[in-house]
Amino acid sequence: MTDLQFSQTPHRVTGYGLQEHYIDGTFTPSVSGETFESLNPATNEVLALAAAGDAADVEAAVMAARRGARSVREVISS
């Protein structure tokens, strides 16, 4: 298994730029602000920086999903 390299500093990205989490209808960086490089396996060029999620990001996503499920139940029951 490869060790991930996390960083809070800008990198030269050739493709897709910063890829953030999609939580509660918006793109957001990780709570920690950490990112990791997504590499092209053929050239080893950095294609994108991705937000490095951790437990705080998972918690935010779970809470957003619960709010969404609650809204759906309210619509269905009315």
Task: List the helices and strands in order.
Answer: EEEEEEH
Portion of residues within helices: 25-40%
User: What spatial form do the alpha-carbon principal axes imply?
Assistant: elongated
Largest β-sheet summary: 4 strands, mixed
Distance between the termini: 50 Å
Q: Kindly report the average pLDDT value.
A: 85
Beta strands, count: 6
Low-confidence stretches: none
Q: What structural category characterises the helix and strand content?
A: alpha+beta
Order of adjacent strands in the largest pleated sheet: 1-5-6-2
Q: TL;DR of this structure?
A:
The chain is an alpha+beta fold. The chain contains one helix and six strands, in the order E-E-E-E-E-E-H.
Describe the structure.
The protein is an alpha+beta fold. It contains 1 helix and 6 strands; from the N terminus they run E-E-E-E-E-E-H. The protein has one helix at 55-77; strands spanning 6-7, 17-19, 21-23, 26-28, 35-39, 46-51. The strands form 2 sheets. The chain has a 4-stranded mixed sheet with strand order 1-5-6-2, with no helix packed on it. Strand 3 and strand 4 form a beta hairpin. The longest helix has 23 residues, at 55-77. It starts with 5 loop residues before the first strand and ends with a helix. The model has no long low-confidence stretch (mean pLDDT 85).
